[in-house]
Design brief:
The protein is an alpha+beta fold. The protein folds into two domains: about 1-90, Ubiquitin-like (UB roll) (Roll); about 95-215, Alpha-Beta Plaits. It has helices at about 20-25, 80-95, 110-115, 155-165, 195-200, 210-215, and strands at about 1-5, 10-15, 50-55, 60, 70-75, 140-145, 170, 180, 205-210. Strand 1 and strand 2 (about 10-15) form a beta hairpin. Helix 2 packs antiparallel against helix 3 (about 110-115). The N and C termini lie far apart (about 45 Å). Bound molecules: FE2/S2 (inorganic) cluster. FE2/S2 (inorganic) cluster binds next to loops.
């Protein structure tokens, strides 16, 4: 274990543990969305978990910084909050904000983050760039809403953890990037055990099961 200082508080954490995990385990909240507890290789795709670290020129995503003894960290400076608000605005720009019609309403990470960062989910100045496809129902058990998806990669990650290789993956590039189910040439998704782990990992209501939608 090593000692680090976060927001003037000394805490202990395992050396090498992602700084984000070290803070969360010590009840110091840093906004985050793509992180999953115990992740070995964080994708750092959400760009929310910025912190300031003494000696570093610019804020860094805490999930990518290995904890080492003597780190002095600020999680709540104005610069950090500004970056986190910009990160959230970028996520919202590709997310169809229609909470009333979403099964994740009141459980959505974007709602929680907006409350924490004291911003609205529908900023007036924000341009939306939504995907043309509203619903992907090609899977026998899962339903995907591409224009709610913020491409955090959590579903891809947990599917890989369960199966050794993901049966969901990223497809296309740039703005067109989407997640895709692995469907065989004959249209079968039989390799999927319908465990629902991917849907449970979705923080925003972009991926769910048909059962959840039926039960609404
Ligand atoms: Fe660090 Fe998403 S949690 S970038």
């Amino acid at each position: 274990m090593v000692k680090i200082t976060v927001d003037n508080r000394e805490i202990e954490a395992a050396e090498g543990m992602p700084l984000l995990e070290a803070c969360l385990k010590n009840d110091i909240y840093i906004p985050n969305l793509c992180w999953i507890d115990g992740m070995k290789t964080p994708s750092a795709s959400c760009r929310l978990c910025f912190v300031e670290i003494e000696g570093e020129k610019t804020p860094l995503p805490a999930c990518t910084v290995p904890t080492r003894g003597g780190l002095v960290v600020r999680t709540d400076s104005p610069a950090v909050r500004e970056l986190q608000r910009s990160g959230l605005a970028l996520l919202l720009s590709v997310h169809h904000v229609d909470c009333r019609h979403c099964h994740a309403n009141k459980k959505c990470a974007l709602q929680r983050l907006a409350r924490f960062l004291k911003v609205t989910l529908k900023p007036k100045h924000l341009d939306h760039v939504l995907k043309p496809v509203e619903t992907d129902e090609t899977h026998s058990c899962l339903v995907h809403f591409p224009n709610r998806c913020v491409l955090c990669g959590r579903c891809v990650h947990v599917c890989r953890e369960v199966h050794g290789q993901p049966l969901i993956s990223f497809a296309k590039r740039g703005f067109d990037t989407v997640i895709r189910f692995q469907i065989a040439r004959n249209g079968s998704d039989a390799d999927c055990e319908s465990c629902g782990a991917c849907a449970a990992a979705c923080p925003v209501g972009a991926l769910t099961t048909r059962a959840v939608l039926r039960g609404r």
